[in-house]
Each structure stands twice: as C-alpha cells, then as structure tokens.
Task: structure prediction
Amino acid sequence: MDSIDREIVNFEQAYDSLDGVLQDTTVNLRRMELIRLNYKTIVHELEEPLIDFRSSIGTNQFSPELMELFMEVSTRSRYVIDETLRLIGEIQNSENQQLTEMETRLKTVLGLVRLLNMFGPIGILLVMLVMARAGLAKVDEFQKDRQIFELDLEKSRKRLASVIEGTDVGTWEWEIDSGNLILNECWAQILGYHLEELLPTTDKTWEDFAHPDDFQISRLRTLQTLDGTVDFYDTDMRMRHVDGHWVWMHIRGKVVERTPQGEPMKMAGTCSDLSARKEMQELLAFEKDRLRATLFAITEGLVATDIAGKVQMMNPLAERLTGWQQADAVGIPFSTVFRIKQEDAEEPDKNIVRKVLESGESSAMDPDTILIARDGTSFYVECLLAPIVNKQGEVDGVVAVFKDVSEEKKQQDALAHLVFRDPLTGLHNRRFYDQQKEYLDAQEYYPLAFVTADVDGLKLTNDAFGHEAGDRLLQIVGETLDNSCRVGDVVSRIGGDEFVMLLPKTTADQVERIVKRIISSLKTEKNYDLPVSVSFGFAVKETVLEDMADVIKQAEDSMYQQKIVESPKMKKLAVDHLLEAQFQKDAWEYEHCMAISKYSEELAREMGFSDEDAIEMKTAGLYHDIGKIAIDPSILNKPTALDSNEWDAVRRHSELGYTIVRTVNEYAAFANHILHHHERWDGQGYPHGLSGEDIPIRARLLCVVDAYVAMVSNRPYRDALGMDAAIEQLRIHAGSQFDPHIARLFVEKVLHREWL
Result:
C-alpha cells in the first residue's frame, strides 16, 4: 500500500510537469483530460478493491461471488491501464517526432520521462497483482472471448449494412466531441449526391442541408437525447436536395457510446426519404380539407344519418338553420333535429327519412315545407333527401341537403302579388278578377253579385293636387271597399278609377245594403280637402242560365246612370269644399276674395255688363284664387323675397284655378277669366303672356280689382298702402300693367276718386 501511495504522489508530480510542457493543442488537452479521468478511476474504483482483495488473497478465502467481483475489477483494471498506456504512448510518439525538430523542448522530454518512470511501476504492480491470482490463463481466455465477440460484432455490422443498403435507408454516425459525421451512400443519394461529393462530412454538413425551421426542432431533440430526457432521437425534417427543393426525411437515432461517467460520445441512426409519403399526406390533407371546405362552404345545410335514421354529421350551415350543434345532435333521431311541417298542416312530419331508408330512392320535400328550429323559429326550406349506398349496394343512411328559401318564397309571393295584385291599392287586379269570375260562375256560388264602382273626381284631384293626391284617393277607396267585404268576397281594381266586387252567395237586397254601407263609410273620408265620392252599380246572377256578360253589363249600366245624375253635383260640391277649405286655412284670403267679388260686380255694372254677367263676375271674383289651395302656405306667407322655384309655384295658381272650376258646368263660363287675370297690358304677365285687347276683358277687370285690393291689404312681406297711394300706383301702371280705360273707370266710378 505504501508503494502505491508513493507512486500516486509521483503521478501527481509527473502529471503537473507533463501538463506544463505539452503544447496547448486540442488533441493534447483531450489526451490529458482522459489521462486525468483514468487516474481518478484507478484511485477510486480500482485501488481500494485491490487492497481489499489483498487480505483475501493472503488467506485463500475466495468465494464464487468474490471471485466474480475480482474478475470484474481485474478486467476493468486492464482496460483502464491499457487505455492509459495507449494515451501515454500517443503522447510519447507525438513528442518523439517533435524532438528531432525542436531540441528546445528538452524540458518536455524530461517531464515525459519522469511520467513514464512513474507510470511504469504502477502498471507493473497492478498487472502482477491481477496475474498473480487470476492467472494468465484467465487473461488469455478473456482475450479470446473478446476477439470472438469482436468478430461476431463485425459480422453483425456487415449484415446490418447489407440490409440497410438493400432498403434504401441512410445511416449516420456522429462523433460528438470531434463533430465528425459518418454517412453512407444512401444518405447522400436521397439528396441527389454521391457521398464522395460531400466529404469530409461534419455536424456542420447536417446544419447546412437542414431547413432552418426544422433544424431548430432537431437541435432541441438532439439535446434531449444527449441528456437522457428521451431515449431516442426521432423527428421529421426537410433537407435541401441538390436541385434546390426540400426533401422530407424521417431521422431516428440514439446515443450508442458514452464515457464511463455517462457523457455521450457518439450517436448513430438511420434516415429515410419521406417525400413521397409527405406528398401523399399533403394530398390527402388537401383533399380532406377541400371536401370539408366544400361541405362547410356550400350554401346548403347538410345532415347525414346512419341506417337507424340518427344524425351522424352536420355542417355549420345545418347547425345554424336547425339550431342544433353537431356535438349535441349526433345520435339524435333526424326527425328531432330536423322538425318540419307542411304549410297547411299542424303536426310535423316524422317519417320522411324512414321513407328514403325503406325505398332507397331520393325524395324532395314539398315546396311549402317549413323547418322548425330548436328555438321554435320557423322558415321555409327546400330539401332533397338521398340514400347513402355502400359498396355492396346497401343503404347505410340518408343525407339531407337543404336551404332556407324564405327569401325566395317571399319573392315568389311578391311576384304572385305583382301578377295578381294591384301595386297601388294592394287589391286584386284584372287578371285575378277574370280568373275568379270564371271560377265563381258555378251553382254553388249563386246568387253571385257583381258590383262596379267608379271613383268621382279623380281627374280633378290629379289636376289640382297632382298624381300623388290622385293615388291617395284610389287607395282610400280601395281600403274602404276591402274593409266592407266578407271573407270569400273578391275586390279588384280593374282600371284607372274602376273597381269591381264579386260577392258569392249574395242576394240583391244584401248587396244593396253592402253598397249603402260603403257609401256611408266614404262620406267620412277626405283627400286633400276634397270629399271622396264613388258611383256604384250592381247586378246579381241567380242561375247558370243567365249570361255572365249580360249580368256584368247590367251592373255597369246601373253605375253609369248613377254617375250621370250624381257626378255634376259631386263635382260642384267638391269645388265648393275646396273654396271653403281655403278660406278656413287663410282668413286674409277670405277677406281678399270677398272684396274682389264685391268690386268685380260693381265694376262690371259700371262697364255696362248685364245683371247675369255682373253676377258671374261676382262669383269669378270669389273663386279667382282657388288655385292657391295647392300652394304651400309657407310660400304664400313668406316674409322675404321668393326664389325662382317659389315664384314658379305661385304663378301656377291661375292655371290650377282654371282647371278646378272648369270641371263644374256652371263655373266653366268664368274659368277663362281666372286663367288670365295675371296677364299684363304690356304682355309681361302670365301664364300665356297675352297683351292689350288679346286679354279677355273680364280678365282685365279682375286684374285691376285684384291689384288694388292687394295693395290696400297688409301682407307678411309688406304693409298695406293707403287708398290714395294705391290709386297712384294704378295711374302709374295704367297702360303697362293695367288696361288704362278699366283702371280709370274703376277709380272714378267704383272708388269715386278723380283720375288726375
């Protein structure tokens, strides 16, 4: 033991000396590190067991277990000693080569000699101790076993290499410390190279070929394998092919050699070309995604069932339409998820899928099918169900493809509405009336009453207030007729101002009461201050023997007779209502018109008109501004100057007044006076720019009187003039605006003032 201790001290001294003189090269540093590791192994793992064995050797007390342990220590001792001597030999050989060139390194040689002198006794001592008890025979036997093992290992390696070459699998071995990378030909061929083109290969070669993204993952998994976190390195990564594209490789390996302290020294493994498989996977994934995208992007909902009619799959649109999520619907009967009923049925149909499963034939649902969603909302759907047939031709389930057609149904109804409805009133039109007229001409609907109705004053309304007012008049009449009828009655607008009613199972007495009820309702209606009036006629078909055309003609004749009698009275009533409404809205207009009416009659008499003509001028003065009923009061009473559009509106009042009064026979005589009462003597007036005596004399009369009364009245845009000032204006503008003779006659004979 003392001898060993001395040799250990010598080792420490020799190691320090050797470390001091050796060149600082990577190889030498690695050699010295390994010598230090072997030294520690000798001290801690071999020295103490050998000392323990020494006492046993002396007493010959060797048990089988002790012998086995001794052999293990002996074998490991030999390996460590051999390895240490090999390293020392490498150092010695390296230094001997440099001695011939570098004599200045004598110190290094001396240090080496000292180290060799120290290690020699230790090696001899250990070998002698082992050889003494185990015997040279055991060592020889071990060496033979090792040689046999190495031969078997070499054969296995060759067989493995042969198998690998035959399966187009690349192999790699990575010496971790040196970075050397040993690859086979197949590895290079996967990337389109010959191996000789890549040599020498290192771990840098691997990094250069690897895709940057994949290399980071590979690096992480390499570290996990080296530190023992995982047993195997296993990854898919892309490597660059000689032509520039990326090749997918499946790479697998493990640590195959470690130091006695467990540090990894070498990794090895295989790699295979995954490109074809990756392409197939990508193609399958693409097809799957495309199919999924197609199913999920189609504008129809899709539900698939199994043979039992239970839901197996739904696309998102089906989820939205039914209100069921696929996760909740799977395994639920189709009829529960897809609740439907027909438009005219109260109970949902639960047998639609069963019918397809049993018949094996596709089936389309009724166009009026209504889907009831999970939350109770409902809408129209269009649905086609088809069987799912397997390779054996057996029905495995049903697929239902459907879509919300509520909007289409709405459009169809709207189209039908356009086809059979009057767009203005919403009533049925002539097309529908003609169809129903034929349909109701049957014994079961007799007596069948025909009622014709013609709106009074539509033209007057259109002329006075525009077509918007006329449209509103027709709508009022349509609503009143429709509200006065029963279920099953047909009300149609068949022309501009013509309406017709078909009343099945209605006697003459009944239809007369219905018409009276309608007339009574219309009397309560007003449209732009005009009363609403309609002329009616009716007839009843009692039997099939009566000709339909004759019955309709009877109804029309009855209506025309009433219109002849009532229409003139209704028109006069309408115009009088307008004048009354105008005076109620504007008190100034009432006073203005009353004054003009008075002065017009007086002036007419001074001009020699007959009593009848004088009375006519009195009435004309009263109605001369009736056209203003259609002008916005804000324009008429505007305190500031009017713009061009407002002036145009004001100038229209004479034409509107003419249009209104000429509809009444007894007022038609002075309609022309109203039309031209704003013409000027010099031709600068409106609406036609007449001048001088081309202007009707009665219109010239109204012009003078209207101007005077307006000047002596207060208006929002100016104060009233006194009588003298107003007469002065008449003198100034006589011969330009006014007929000079009529103006002078008005001043002298009606106002009783001098014409200076």
In short: The chain has five domains: 2-134, 167-280, 302-403, 421-564, 586-750. The domain at 421-564 is CATH 3.30.70.270 (Alpha-Beta Plaits).
